[in-house]
Design goal:
It contains 6 helices and no strands. By secondary structure, it is mainly α. The protein has one domain. α2 runs antiparallel to α3 and α5 packs antiparallel against α6. The radius of gyration is 18 Å and the shape is flat. It starts with a helix and ends in a 14-residue tail after the last helix.
């Protein structure tokens, strides 16, 4: 690799690496990527229910998208928490907590809407933490 290639950062590298921290703007940009990939995952999963044909290519595609979404979301939340000076185990609150809450919506009865709002709030909450690392204010 030439020196010029090494000096040029990968614009999407922050999505896959667990190193360092990221500011609010990069977290929200990465979160937008996660939302788009989740819609693709839903489309692939919906193709399983097509009565006209079998899933074919969509099962491996859905598995790859599921792993990709989980990896990117985990990396974003961990780096954002690190930037905000939060301990790493808080990932279980902001990373897996919303999914766990959504699993119990059936048990919530008439309060299901509140459970969904709380889970959505937990997903975007790291974007509102102030940055504590030097140079990561964006």
């Amino acid at each position: 690799m030439s020196e010029q290639d090494q000096a040029r950062p990968n614009p999407l590298g922050f999505l896959f690496s667990f190193n360092g921290g990221i500011g609010r703007a990069k977290f929200l940009a990465g979160f937008g990527v996660v939302v788009v990939l989740r819609f693709c995952l839903l489309a692939a999963a919906a193709s399983f229910m097509d009565p006209r044909g079998g899933p074919g290519l969509f099962i491996p595609l859905a598995i790859i998208l599921l792993i990709l979404v989980a990896w990117i979301h985990s990396a974003l939340v961990v780096k954002r928490l690190r930037d905000a000076g939060q301990p790493g185990w808080h990932y279980f609150i902001f990373g897996t907590g919303p999914g766990a809450l959504l699993l119990v919506t059936e048990l919530a009865g008439s309060a299901w809407f509140m459970v969904i709002l709380v889970s959505l709030g937990l997903v975007v909450a790291p974007a509102f933490f102030p940055s504590k690392l030097a140079g990561a204010s964006t």
